[in-house]
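Lab meeting, item 3. Inverse folding demo.
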């Protein structure tokens, strides 16, 4: 079999690559090779435990693209020869390509500690069969410990709690959501967890998971021990780059596949997108372990457009972390860097804060208070990042912040931002959360200059 384009992987990165390539090069013959016939939507995995009726409701399909000519091979790639441009699969097929895209995603990190192999100890893989088995097993348990208080840990905590389970969250760092948010936001989330009877153990390291055959507890480095029926390891993911490494592709410092700004790898005619690729932080340009479906889709659009010639000039040299999540009815969003990140990277910063309602008047039934923090470079006034907490309106406001960071908007531009408002849908035009926070920073900057 020979194709103009072959994409290895059927997750968001692979799907978006195929969609973009089909739109950009409609006459090209394109194939996707993926291991499973049913592919989970990664960001929706936590919600299969309670919010959704079944795991199968979190599946994304390829039917529409197949009807337009995509060929899908359900198989596993065991080797790639970039010199002969051949792919070898587990079933014995040999597939030739003109352009190849690695979209092999990531795998959960399993720490090296006693007890991780016990029954009842789970990671959160992007595999429908494993997630189905995990859900069935947890239904029979009562006390669940979640190791890791990042986004996956927090979302799994919420969903497992909805199943009526007793949940303990364990985080090695001093606070929950320690990477995407500054301490004052982590504090609010910590209070929210406690209000919902979640036991939270921060600055706590797991020494051992105990049990004989099946997990029965966790022992911490402090010597404390707690009894549990199940353990979920939500401490992060690592790039699934072994196939690319074996093919001779250059691997970056974070373990992801090295690419240039057009997602081209060190091998001719080979691209890498999504979690398997190494990224760079937007402002510092340092290697980043950023793994988001939105970032994967961005990578895919760049690669898919430029497979055969450079059509889309990519001016963005780094990737912006744009996150949002919902925990016990509270929505949190972050775009760009935190104040903590900025200071550690050597920036002098000024922060703008606001707390306003997202409807006007505030008596509108679904109105909620929104807390905003914006981080600006003190010298240039350029927006470095922002964090928001409130109701569902926070989701799209976070995307507005993402655009502002990507566009390198200044505090004065945000103060004078032209927006559309409507009582049932948005905050008031005179107290729009992002603009109000920018105005707070603007006044602080002028106070510094006058002082």
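The presenter then showed the designed sequence:
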């Amino acid at each position: 079999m020979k194709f103009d384009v072959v994409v290895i992987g059927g997750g968001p990165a692979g799907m978006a690559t195929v969609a973009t390539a089909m739109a950009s090069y409609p006459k090209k013959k394109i194939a996707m090779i993926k291991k499973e016939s049913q592919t989970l939507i990664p960001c929706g995995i936590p919600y299969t435990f309670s919010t959704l009726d079944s795991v199968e409701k979190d599946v994304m399909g390829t039917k529409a693209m197949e009807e337009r000519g995509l060929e899908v091979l359900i198989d596993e790639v065991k080797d790639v020869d970039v010199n002969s441009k051949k792919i070898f699969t587990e079933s014995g097929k040999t597939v030739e390509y003109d352009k190849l895209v690695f979209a092999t995603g990531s795998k959960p990190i399993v720490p090296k500690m006693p007890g991780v192999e016990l029954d009842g100890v789970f990671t959160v893989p992007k595999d429908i069969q494993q997630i189905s088995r995990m859900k069935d097993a947890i239904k029979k348990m009562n006390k669940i410990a979640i190791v890791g208080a990042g986004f996956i840990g927090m979302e799994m905590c919420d969903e497992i709690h909805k199943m009526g389970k007793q949940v303990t969250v364990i985080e090695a760092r001093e606070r929950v959501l320690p990477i995407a948010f500054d301490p004052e936001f982590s504090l609010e989330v910590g209070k929210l967890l406690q209000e919902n009877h979640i036991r939270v153990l921060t600055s706590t390291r797991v020494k051992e998971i105990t049990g004989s055959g099946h997990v029965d507890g966790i022992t911490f480095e402090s010597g404390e021990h707690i009894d549990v029926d199940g353990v979920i390891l939500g401490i992060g993911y690592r790039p699934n780059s072994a196939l690319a490494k074996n093919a001779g592709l250059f691997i970056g410092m974070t373990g992801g596949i090295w690419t240039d700004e057009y997602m081209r790898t060190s091998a001719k005619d080979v691209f890498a997108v999504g979690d398997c690729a190494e990224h760079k932080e937007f402002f510092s340009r340092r290697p980043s372990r950023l793994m988001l479906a939105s970032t994967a889709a961005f990578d895919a659009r760049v690669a898919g457009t430029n497979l055969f010639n450079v059509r889309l000039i990519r001016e963005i040299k780094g990737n912006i972390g744009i996150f949002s999540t919902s925990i016990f009815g509270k929505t949190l969003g972050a775009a760009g860097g935190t104040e903590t990140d900025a200071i550690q990277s050597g920036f002098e910063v000024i922060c703008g804060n606001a707390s306003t309602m997202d409807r006007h008047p505030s008596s509108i039934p679904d109105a909620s208070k929104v807390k905003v923090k914006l981080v600006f470079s003190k010298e240039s006034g350029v927006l470095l990042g922002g964090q928001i907490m409130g109701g569902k309106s926070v989701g799209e406001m976070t995307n507005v912040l993402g655009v502002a960071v990507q566009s390198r908007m200044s505090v004065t531009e945000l103060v004078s931002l032209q927006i559309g408002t409507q009582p049932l849908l948005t905050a008031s035009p005179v107290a729009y959360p992002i603009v109000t926070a920018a105005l707070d920073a603007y006044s602080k900057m002028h106070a510094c200059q006058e002082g």
